[in-house]
Each structure stands twice: as C-alpha cells, then as structure tokens.
Amino acid sequence: ALVTSKQMLEDAQKGGYAVGAFNVENMEMVKAVIAAAEEMQAPVMLQTTPSTVKYGTLETYYAIVAAEAKKASVPVCLHLDHGSSFELAAQALRAGYTSVMIDGSHEDFEGNVAVTKKVADMANAMGIPVEAELGKVGGKEDDLEAEADTNTDPQEAKEFVERTGVTSLAVAIGTAHGFYKTTPVLDKERVSEIKAVVSVPLVLHGASGLSDEDVKECVQRGMCKVNFATELRAAYTDAGKKLLEEKPETFDPKKFGVVGMEAVKELVKGRMKVLGCEGKA
Ligand code: 13P
Ligand code: ZN
Ligand code: NA
C-alpha cells in the first residue's frame, strides 16, 4: 500500500534499523524496487529528484508508483528527494507524494531554517512528513554541486529541528553523491553525537559506493533512512549494455527492461539486508 514515511521511519528509529530509499527513473526501476521490498518483506521508499521529475513529471511518477504500491503487501512511500524550492514541494504534495524533502543546505543557516519551516508548516498541516538537510553532502546531486564539504554540527542540528518542525534530518558526515574516486573518510562518531541530541530520525545521503560495513555502522549509530541512487542507475544501465554486447540484434525495449529490473532488484535486496529492514514490513 502507498503510505507516508512517518510510521516506517518511527519504527526504524525504535527498532535500530534503517529503511532504504531508492531513486527511481522509470517504470522498470519502480517495479524492481517494489519487487525487492516484497521479496524481503521490507518497508520501502521510492524517491525522485528535481531533474527526474523534470524529465518524467511528478504526476506520472505518482501514477506509476501508486499503481504498483496498490498491488504490494508491504508499505511503500513516494518521496520527493532534494526538493529545491517551496513551489516544487507544494507541487509534489498536490501530485500525491507521501513524503517530501526540502533541501536548503546551500543556504546559510537562517535561510535554510526559513525555507524549511515554510515547507514543514505546509506539509505537516497535510499530515505529510518532511526531511531537510543541514550541513553539506559532497559531490553532485542533480544540478546542485556542493562546494567544500561541511559536516553537520550536533547543536546546530538540534536547534534546526526544533525551529523548523521537520520530521527527519539528513546530516553530513563525509559521504558524497555518486561513486567515490577515493575511499571516503566518514565521521561515524558524529552520527552518535547528533543522534544523542536530535529527536527525529536521521538520514544518510550518498550511500552508493559505501561498503556494507560502513553502511551498517552508520545505521547502528542512528541513521534511519539510507539513500541509494547512482548504484541503481549503474546496475540498470550495465545490464542493458551487457545484453547489447551479447545480443547486438536486440531492439525490443522490454528485453532491456527485463535484465535491468533483475539487476536493480538484486542490488536493492542486498542493500536491504545490510540496512536490517528485512522482515520489518
Ligand atoms: P548516491 O547516488 O551516492 O547513492 O546518493 C543518493 C542520494 O543521496 C539521493 O538523495
Ligand atoms: Zn542525496
Ligand atoms: Na555515493
């Protein structure tokens, strides 16, 4: 069923595990992620970035996810990832998204508080959970390139959550979007420090390319939602490339879809095991 992220993130926080949030680009990726959740009996979040919704529209992703979620026995949430403005967050809510992120991390602290509070006031009034970001996750997410990586300060995080009313918080601990060119240096103790003073579930961005051990430790220390994007795109496309190498005569999009879905499903199942959300639906 299509549900908000409220219950699943609260349960994850209480249970000491994390819900996987997987970025999807098309119908095949939606089906693959939900099939993985079904096989693992795990709650799941599917999310789309601003560039993805520009490509396919909020309404179309909503229609695909809603149709697939309806058939699923597990809780499925549709989330706006890295919402870039109040207007886009409002449009996502109107389209039926059941969770939104407003990313004001490129603003200064007061600017971030202001835009985040505006979105939180609107979404909370509609019963929809809101994720925000404090500190800077490295790398390129969509068209937004973060400059110098700045990890989240625990006391600032506490003040930020209290002043904005957000229901979950993405924090920076040294991860970056995309694959890593060099091994990332993660400040994992910071997760525990933030968790000690912040009441809402914490979110880890940039998980593609992290080792299972790193992901596991971040979850044990308090991350309740973990985002995977690049890995899924790569798995989907690599499967299609392999098919084309083996059978260059392939022209039916369904053939690419089948191998792409299988690759994404297996990847997602593996990451879900690491997050500990298996059997938590
Ligand atoms: P990766 O592309 O590194 O998995 O990051 C995903 C993410 O944080 C989406 O918001
Ligand atoms: Zn992200
Ligand atoms: Na990454």
TrEMBL record:
Question: Which residues does the record give as Zn(2+) 1 binding sites?
Answer: 82, 177, 205
Q: Which InterPro entries match?
A: Aldolase_TIM, Class_II_FBP_aldolase, FBA_II
Q: How is the cofactor bound?
A: Binds 2 Zn(2+) ions per subunit. One is catalytic and the other provides a structural contribution.
Q: Provide any one GO MF term from the record.
A: zinc ion binding
Which positions bind Zn(2+) 2?
Answer: 103, 133
Q: Where is the active site?
A: 81 (proton donor)
Q: Is Methyltransferase a UniProt keyword of this protein?
A: no
Q: Which Pfam families does the record cross-reference, listed alphabetically?
A: F_bP_aldolase
Report whether Zinc shows up as a keyword of the record.
Answer: yes
User: Which cofactor(s) are needed, names only?
Assistant: Zn(2+)
Q: Which CDD domains match?
A: TBP_aldolase_IIB
Q: Which residues bind dihydroxyacetone phosphate?
A: 178, 206-208, 227-230
Q: Where is the signal peptide?
A: none
A biological process from GO: carbohydrate metabolic process
| Keywords attached to this entry | Metal-binding, Zinc
Q: What is this protein called?
A: Class II fructose-bisphosphate aldolase
Q: From what organism does this protein derive? A: Mordavella massiliensis
